[in-house]
């Protein structure tokens, strides 16, 4: 038996339709096996709150070992996991193909699936992750919803905290006045046919964030692609299912995947690449969907033809070369999000920003602590800020005109962390959330 592994991490399909997956005794046995290995290693102690909670449970147990920890206490370890994948991707020496065969995030996903089945996840928590329903409602009444969700609103935010469990101090995304797909129908940017990459075609997967919350990211991506000769069609069949994945709702993820692939496959067959503007969505299409809907050839085809926007731009830069005409944008601090790192594609956002003239790029590659919907909930928000404090500290120490992240939600969370370090003083930075917005501005778009 080898101690650790230098082999490339591999992942097994999630066999959620196998009866053993839903066997409670089988789940408990696997939790005990994995937690005992983690206890003996402890390499992940500083990644998130799951591991300190687990190690404290063991250290405080009568025997100081896992055998005297009550299995009911495992729930707090499961609930603290944000499914960021960083333990699997960057820390754990026992991931497959090592014989210990340890995949901590997917084990937490299995435990979450059991929680959902057993009715342990509230209807309100489930409703908060319905991004399409919430997004349509939010855009339909954007003036009202944006007013009500402002952190400074001392009238509505305490009510939201009491009724919905959303921490009143957590920054929430605003809503577009109109959906991104609606504003894109008759507003295609002019294609630069002289660009080196002219002739490429992209089906731009809007993602629920660009569709409902920040259309500027989608517009910037489309404009930059057009400047580089790429024809685009904006598509948004449905949410990628990441919010449902966080609750272990694998049936819903499969349903969304099959609905989306039915619309996206014809574009691939017509020679289009699929490009997502938010990394969590790219991760779902490229990696999670094939493991959840395994054996589906259409899902496999989509996975092989999907790219993150920064990944795609660097593909153009390295193969054909980017179109000229960019102006300096000043120095930039970029956070490489966990869901970007989990795609195993390198620091593509930072590489892309280094294409800007005279740009000094400061890179922060560590978890922001946000964790999607997890990080805005009461009871989690302060923990999320604690986990993200090293990132906020690094951002505060490298003050630049621009602080961006490939994950827009992480970016706002980082700014809140910087504000906390500065005794409530908000950092003065540009409004750009995503690196693609800076590239659009560099092109003068």
What is the rounded distance between the termini?
57 Å
- Mean pLDDT, as a whole number? 93
Tally of helical segments:
23
Biggest sheet strand order reads: 2-1-3-4
Q: List how many beta strands DSSP finds.
A: 7
Strand content: 5-15%
- Enumerate the spans where pLDDT stays under 50 for 5 or more consecutive residues: none
Principal-axis shape: globular
Overall CATH architecture of the largest domain: 3-Layer(aba) Sandwich
Number of domain units: 4
Task: Classify the fold: give the CATH topology of the largest domain.
Answer: Rossmann fold
Would you tell me the structural class of the helices and strands?
Answer: alpha/beta
- Round the Cα radius of gyration to an integer and report it: 22 Å
Q: What is the CATH class of the largest domain? A: Alpha Beta
Descriptive notes:
By secondary structure, the protein is α/β, with parallel strands linked by helices. It has 4 domains: 19-117; 123-164, no CATH class; 180-318, Rossmann fold, CATH 3.40.50; 325-442, Rossmann fold (3-Layer(aba) Sandwich), CATH 3.40.50. It contains 23 helices and 7 strands. The protein has helices at 24-41, 50-59, 74-80, 86-91, 104-117, 123-128, 131-140, 142-149, 156-164, 180-184, 207-213, 215-227, 242-246, 250-269, 279-292, 297-304, 309-319, 338-341, 348-353, 381-387, 389-397, 408-421, 435-442; strands at 201-205, 231-235, 273-276, 306-308, 332-335, 361-364, 402-405. The longest helix has 20 residues, at 250-269. The radius of gyration is 22 Å and the shape is globular.
């Amino acid at each position: 038996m080898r101690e650790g592994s230098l082999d490339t991490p591999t992942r097994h399909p999630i066999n959620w339709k196998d009866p053993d997956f839903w066997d409670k005794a089988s789940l408990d046995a696997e939790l005990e096996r994995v937690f005992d290995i983690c206890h003996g290693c402890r390499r992940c102690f500083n990644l998130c709150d799951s591991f300190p909670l687990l190690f404290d449970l063991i250290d405080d147990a009568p025997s100081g070992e896992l055998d005297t920890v009550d299995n009911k206490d495992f729930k707090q370890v499961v609930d603290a996991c944000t499914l960021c994948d960083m333990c699997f991707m960057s820390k754990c020496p026992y991931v497959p193909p090592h014989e210990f065969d340890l995949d901590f995030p997917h084990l937490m996903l299995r435990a979450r699936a059991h929680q959902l089945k057993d009715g342990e996840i509230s209807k309100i928590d489930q409703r908060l992750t319905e991004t399409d329903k919430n997004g349509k409602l939010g855009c339909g009444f954007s003036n009202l919803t944006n007013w009500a969700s402002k952190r400074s609103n001392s009238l509505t935010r305490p009510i939201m905290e009491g009724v919905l469990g959303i921490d009143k101090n957590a920054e929430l995304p605003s809503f577009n006045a109109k959906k991104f797909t609606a504003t894109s129908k008759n507003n295609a940017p002019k294609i630069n046919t002289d660009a080196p990459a002219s002739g490429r075609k992209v089906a731009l997967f809007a993602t629920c964030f660009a569709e409902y919350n920040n259309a500027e990211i989608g517009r910037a991506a489309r404009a930059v692609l057009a400047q580089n000769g790429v024809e685009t069609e904006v598509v948004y069949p449905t949410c990628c299912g990441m919010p449902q994945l966080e609750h272990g709702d694998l049936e819903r993820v499969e349903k969304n995947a099959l609905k989306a692939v039915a619309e996206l496959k014809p574009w691939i067959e017509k020679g289009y690449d699929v490009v997502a503007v938010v990394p969590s969505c790219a991760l779902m299409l490229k990696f999670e969907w094939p493991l959840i809907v395994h054996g589906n050839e259409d899902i496999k085809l989509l996975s092989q033809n999907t790219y993150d926007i920064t990944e795609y731009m660097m593909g153009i830069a390295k193969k054909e070369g980017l179109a000229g005409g960019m102006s300096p944008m000043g120095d930039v601090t970029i956070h490489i999000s966990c869901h970007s790192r989990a795609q195993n594609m390198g620091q593509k956002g930072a590489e892309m920003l280094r294409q800007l003239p005279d740009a000094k790029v400061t890179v922060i590659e560590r978890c922001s602590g946000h964790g999607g919907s997890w990080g805005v909930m009461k009871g989690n928000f302060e923990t999320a800020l604690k986990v993200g404090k090293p990132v906020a500290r690094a951002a505060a120490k490298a003050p630049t005109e621009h602080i961006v992240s490939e994950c827009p939600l992480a970016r706002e969370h980082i700014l809140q962390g910087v504000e906390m370090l500065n005794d409530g003083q908000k950092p003065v930075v540009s409004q750009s959330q995503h690196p693609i917005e800076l590239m659009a501005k560099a092109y003068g778009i």
